[in-house]
């Protein structure tokens, strides 16, 4: 009986160690994207800039080919382009939004034949976002019954 307890304890200990090792995996190459506003919130019509850096072991990489796309979140991108990061970093003009919503910048970098991706999303007056559709006329009845 004591042997069974020891085996169970070791199995549990090993499983926690294995799960912890999987979670701590940190890729050596990182695509870091950040906006020019520290709070990630813009006003409608305000211009957004995205700072992009590709890093290897915490150091900026030079001459890295990247491609990027910018557009409203979960929608078809309105801007796509590709270029080479000459000095390891670049500022990308994200444009603006004239309605409340979220704008996303997705960057893919190619380092040693592998692709690495990063993304950032900024909000344009996010507290003013309104529902896209109206509730059906019987929704309140349905919801009260479901509760």
Describe how the helices and strands are arranged.
Elements: H1 2-23, E1 29-35, E2 41-42, E3 48-56, E4 59-60, E5 64-72, E6 79-85, E7 89-95, E8 101-111, E9 114-124, H2 139-146
Parallel strand pairs: 2-9
Antiparallel strand pairs: 1-3, 3-4, 3-7, 5-6, 5-8, 8-9
Describe this protein's structure:
This protein is an alpha+beta fold and 147 residues long. The protein has a domain at 27-128: Sandwich (Immunoglobulin-like). The chain contains two helices and nine strands. The strands form two sheets. A five-stranded mixed β-sheet has the order 2-9-8-5-6, with no helix packed on it. Strands 1, 3, 4 and 7 form a four-stranded antiparallel β-sheet that branches. The protein is flat, with a radius of gyration of 23 Å.
């Amino acid at each position: 009986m004591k042997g069974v307890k020891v085996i169970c304890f070791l199995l549990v200990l090993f499983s926690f160690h294995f799960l912890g090792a999987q979670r701590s995996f940190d890729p050596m190459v990182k695509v870091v994207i950040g906006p020019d506003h520290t709070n990630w919130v813009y006003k409608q019509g305000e211009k957004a800039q995205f700072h992009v850096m590709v890093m290897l072991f915490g150091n900026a990489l030079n001459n890295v080919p990247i491609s990027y796309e910018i557009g409203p979140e979960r929608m078809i991108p309105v801007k796509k382009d590709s270029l080479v990061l000459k000095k390891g970093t670049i500022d990308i003009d994200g444009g603006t939004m004239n309605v409340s919503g979220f704008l996303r910048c997705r960057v893919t970098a190619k380092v040693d034949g592998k692709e690495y991706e990063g993304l950032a999303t900024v909000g344009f007056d996010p507290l003013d976002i309104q529902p896209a559709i109206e509730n059906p006329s019987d929704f309140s009845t349905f919801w009260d019954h479901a509760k």
